Fold these 4 entries.
Entry 1:
Amino acid sequence: MAVTVVLTVVSTLVFPVSLGQIGILGMLAGLAIAQTEVTRQIERQRRMLSQGPHITVTSVWLLPAALLVPPQLVAALGVIIYVYLAFRSWNGTRPGEAHRVAANATTMILSGFGAALAGHLADGHSVTTVVAGALGYFLVNTALTGLGLYLTDPAKATAESCLGTMDDNLIELATLCVGGLLVMVLSHEPLLSVLVILPLYVLQRSMLIKRLEELATTDQKTQLLNATTWQDGAQREISRAERENGSFGALMIDLDHFKRINDTYGHLAGDDVLKAVAAVVKQETRAHDLVGRFGGEEFVALLPSTSKEDAIVTAERIRQRISELVIPTQTNEGVAVSIENRTASIGVAAFPLDGTSMEEVMAAADAAVYAAKNSGRNRVVGSVNPARELAAVA
């Protein structure tokens, strides 16, 4: 924040301000406030449902400001927007909220300064200036946001958690594109700038709908498909296999002695184990395979166009990877621990060899899991259905 204040003061002393630039500031502030009012309910719901950093459309306003007005007015716009957001969209600041609002405003203002510098260095055709400014904004914003997220929890920081997912970055780039177009509109037909509100409303609404869809279809602990969504996908796959005389493999994965982890280290440590195992199952299956959490410590995977033998090979890879996991976590008392030497019993069945319905296939896989546990755990067992296998051979 100190850097932002110093740069703003220096800019105030160095760069003069014209009435036209003050007019642009007022127009951008008015548009930002209008957009906040139009999308207030949407943004509140998005914030409540968000599990990671909340992506706003602030860059739509700060990018034009960075390229059209002096830096001190960019800072003024950032302050106006975030003060208004704090007291209108978020219904006032809660304990500890003021610091977060100040940090976010500082990040966005510095990103605006980065855009202004990049645009100034480009010093060419208006299109080149806009592209350079957008790139400068994106890079500074990504760097500052990533650094802040890393410092919040270095132990659990990953490249994706700090730099954002592909979708997160595409959303930010989309808002910068709208901001770039707004630069052109403000430069030639300022009154048309009000038209930007509707596309932004649709963008924010689409982000909310996408989040609701994710919550409805995804297990929130593991980010795999939840049981209902997995079963719906499995029914579609069995219909496809019936039409095309195809086959698929089904895996049921049950962690051995999982209750001991919860009893020894606590349920939060157990959640970390579930997340680590889910990541392994996802990594060892293909992008089009259906992978889900069936409940508790059970996972399921449906492998389209896969024979029973190949499904067993995949299951063996998963079992081996799980046994090699070293999972850093902590107890309920906050003591750091590493959980390792975990095992899983995996049952494998196949369509149509082990059943002609999803219920029959999964029942066969479940029986194979029990067979694996009864024979010592930490192993893969293929289902045994003598009648069907003899019929298949005949």
Note: The chain has 16 helices and seven strands.
Entry 2:
Amino acid sequence: MNKPVQPMSSLSLKLPKADRSIETYRLAASRTFPAKLEGPLNRIAFSAVHTVADPFADNDPWLSVAVDWDKTIAFREHVWDLGLGVAEAMDTAQRGMGLDWPTSLELITRSVGAAKRRNALVFSGAGTDHLAVEDAKNLDDVIRAYEEQLSAVEKVGGRIILMASRALAKLGRSADDYAKVYNRVLSQVREPVIIHWLGDMFDPALTGYWGTKDLDKAMDVAVAIINNNASKVDGVKVSLLDKQREIDMRRRLDKRIKMYTGDDFNYAELIAGDEQGFSHALLGIFDAIAPAASYALSRLAAGDEAGFHDVLGPTVPLSRHIFKAPTRFYKTGVVFMAYLNGHQDHFTMVGGQESTRSTLHLAELFRLADKAGLLANPELATQRMKTVLATRGIES
């Protein structure tokens, strides 16, 4: 059951504010959520999960990757226990933003193996990130790069999330260019894939994807290509942070194709849907709020839409904070939540990206997580918040 616990009137800490003052913040009454799925779901929900860095590795984080494999797979086990699928080696895992292709493939191999042992759901990202954008000379280079990664993921038994390509964004000038690449690639996949349309707020190198900066025209191109390949497409993940565009696209897709919301600002209402349909989910924020997401989805499946919104609604302000501009730095907030909630023993990130958000940002994240009832162990979270503040020169 989801139930409030007694108010922790004695649990407080000092947090910085924007005016350079320090407030004594008293934690709110928290909530507890089941550690495992309660009941069936009527939405497919993927958590795009992060990679746990190895804090003891003697490497240069900006130049090389060191992964704590045990903790990384353990986090996926946590997500699977909650009835959520894993979207592996995506941008939440810092793919192409610290996580290189060889390490991504090892991650995919390990994750697919772990999923098979428990019959769990995992789809994995395949893209062109091993092809340096400056080395991509023509569309055939892009196609070959996609084919290499598709083959590697399928060889280890993985299902595909077809990621957007920076090289294609550089070279593609028209709808025909995008159709050539996607038609060729999709014709070869063994099983239907999830197409990922990632907006430039997540990755500026993807500006002008689908051959135009006009999003209305871009959607026309995307819908045409996807619908023409409907038998090869399981669904589409849209990450534009634009609720209405997602709804419009959902209504235009072939009825065989699912919409997976990637809107970390408006996911609650998009998943709930309306009389014309709903979105499934493939979300980075479901890494940070997995227990609440699982419980909320189980309430929705049970016909308790009020209970769904009661649980998931309070998480939206936290998500909007974590994903605020520059949105590409959202991974820092996701990993910080994993640290606060005990899924890893350190706040160290692939690529050294623990430095991409300010102390004030992390302090507000703590407040919002507490208000949403998302601190699994408030005492531990409070101590860890104090530790981070101390390392940043703030006495708490």
Note: The first strand starts at residue 3 and ends at 4.
Entry 3:
Amino acid sequence: MSAMIQTSAAAPPAAAPATGLGRYRWTICGLVFFATTVNYLDRAVISLLKPYLEVEFKWNAGDYANIEIAFKLAYSLGMLGVGRVIDKLGTKIGYALSTFLWSLAAIGHAFVSSTIGFSVARAFLGVTEAGNFPAAIKTTAEWFPQKERALATGIFNSGSNVGAIIAPLTVPLIAETIGWKWAFVITGALGFVWLALWFWLYEVPARQARLTKAEFDYIHSDVDDQAAAAITTEPKVSWFKLLTFRQTWAFVLGKFLTDPVWWFYLFWLPDFLSKQYGLKGTDIALPVAMVYMLSSVGSVGGGWIPLNFIKRGWAPFRARKTSMLLIALCVFPIVFAQQLGQVNMWLAVLVIGVAAAAHQAWSANIFTTVSDMFPKKAVASVTGIGGMAGGFGGIVLSALVQKRMFVYYESIGQLDKAYFIMFWICGGAYLLAWVLMHFLAPRMKRIDLDAAPTA
């Protein structure tokens, strides 16, 4: 492959893109999709076991919120360093190490015997699961040209929906038949299946013997990649330097405001359906799965929208930002979820599902803005900084809104008011995030890390 590197680095951009789904880069996308599926399956299990754990450990809304905060805090702190670790170790080893550790953490929940123990287990799961998205975004940047990255990101990001679909269809059934502990063990073990496939199939493009020269050249057909097709040995970029760029802050604030909404769906949707409509046990499986089925469509569609604009001649960054504004508008109807639910529960499920789909479409695009604006050597680090911000946003929402508000309204028998307020927060978060991101990064500007920071 070294010979390929020497010849392809100076080659002109590929004239005929190799877009067939049989091409090797889409196999890599499938591996990242699988990892993301397992990642979200493992973190979603506890929300579906909440009714069983509430009985066994006598939890109230505040106890569950504290356990949720432990996960988010550890996830946020993990994001602070995991991007740098993955940039240092590379995607192959960094991704594998993260998956190995979070799989152990997921299985470890089965051996917990106290509320504090669950907080510790969730914290370990959070800090190790933090590696998935920095590694996934870096892998996508390594394996796809710029114009395909939003689509590839949307495809692998739909794994978060598939994991959330599989969870309600399997976890309550496992808990009902063989006990809640086995739900943690079985789902956690899937990570080891992924590890076997990862080490069998994965290598960076410069070392991948299965990769054809034509596809290698196409992957590196962007102008910015022409002289950097091989693994670089460029110096590290400090977090402090990355934080001097407005583009970093655009991504950070976008994640801070919108990630907590997804956390809310993931950890509180089963509780909402249970408390509002009296669903119990396996009855909750289909409506929860329906929400994430819709969100999976949104994830892939979120990658298709800007790609369609680009095919019409739009610049990639303009296509991305226009798509994100349209997506933000699609979230807003969630403010009417409860009113629609009074007519029929499935109308509430539908509008929440559309909002969840819009979140995933937003996520596919906001992640891609990082690889649009930053060189590959900094992608995992910037993604990690943004992921940390998203985690802290989730902590703020849980600590200042959900924990206090939900406990208060539950104590006076008016929990529906707490959910009403939350749905308004969900509806407005994306529009606010888009405005701030547009202010900080109004136009496409590729970052030169060796130049002075932008003003």
Note: The mean pLDDT is 82.
Entry 4:
Amino acid sequence: MHMKQHMRRRALVAAGLTTATVVALSGCAGGGSDADGPTEITFSYLWGGEEAKALEAIIADFNASQDDIVVKGVSSPDTQKQLTSMSSSNGSFDISDNFGNTVGAWASKGILAPLDDAIAAEDIDVDDFVPSAMEQMTYDGKIYSLPIAIHSFQLLYNPQLLAEAGVTPPTTMDELAAAIPKLTKKDASGKITQLGLGSANDSTTLTTLGYAFGGSWDGEDGPTPAEDGNLEALQWYQDNVIEPVGADAMATFVSGQGEYLSAQDPFFSGQVAMIIDGEWRSASAAKIAPDFEWGVTAIPAATPELENSTQVTASTLFIPANSKHKEEAATFLAYLVSDEPMEKFAVALGNLPGRSSLAGSAAFDELQDFGVWAEAASSPNAKSLASRPYSAEYATDLATAFDEVVRLTATPEEAIATVEERMSSYSSK
């Protein structure tokens, strides 16, 4: 390190780090400030647009709060560029973000720095993070990332369209199945003009429905795509969403949809009566379609004991193994996941906070029905896809299988059988 002793001592006090932990954290490729001023670290993040502006405000708050570290924020929404930098001998950033299901694969490759020493030094209460999200943060007994925000998925609906069709918000899968045809319209040529149940992302929708039918996509020994609940969910989707309108008509409808989360978004524009999507919809609706009336309810469960089933994903922060400034990056990471910055970030982006203790904060009161997503995220039936070395390969194969299900080119059993055949080639479980 290149920091004079008095500067080092001041930095340690500001960071709350012990000398022993600094030694452990700074087993890196150099870094630290020189005698002339603070250390500059680079925070390369995937967010852009309004989300990036909100993040830059938090970075500015941190920089103004102390004199030893200057964080330079860089919006770089390119995951391949991110991975290339992390895999090189000379990385271009010191802290970054991604989704929780990448942690296992990246940690197994040795490109993430373990955070356990930093967590202890900064006195970060990991027990306060949402449990289903923290499951994705660990690999081989060590923590490699921390969630700044989490996401859950619920059923949004257009109350005007439901009322016109004589439908009340469904509470069971049978009710949901019965509502879909009443809310679906076609013109004389067979072209869909209104869809009963839409999907923002087929993979997310179908894995989430798997949980609602009591399935699980991962077990202790690896992927479990052929569980009964998963197959039931896929069959339900084929039977009730795709087959009544036809795969070709569905593909044509989807290809003609307006841009996601724009004013022409199919849900905001009334082309889709119901959709399974995340909590960010609340903030987006307020900004993009302020006059649009909508409601949200729990995803109907196949049986009562599966009530409030949902999928939880996490926006996570990590330090790459090739960072030259690990101790300073750890200090900044601890700041980002502390209460006030995390809450500020979550409110600005319309995301659920990564800490359970912030879920009921009054700061979220202006976001319509936000508590519905928060309640689901803390439910015992909230599940996450595993974050393991095989996760990227598995996700790719599941996406292919789901595409076959949606296009009606394979039965659920046939599509999932192909995934099972490929599992033997996956990276170590």
Note: Residues 49-65 form the longest helix (17 residues).
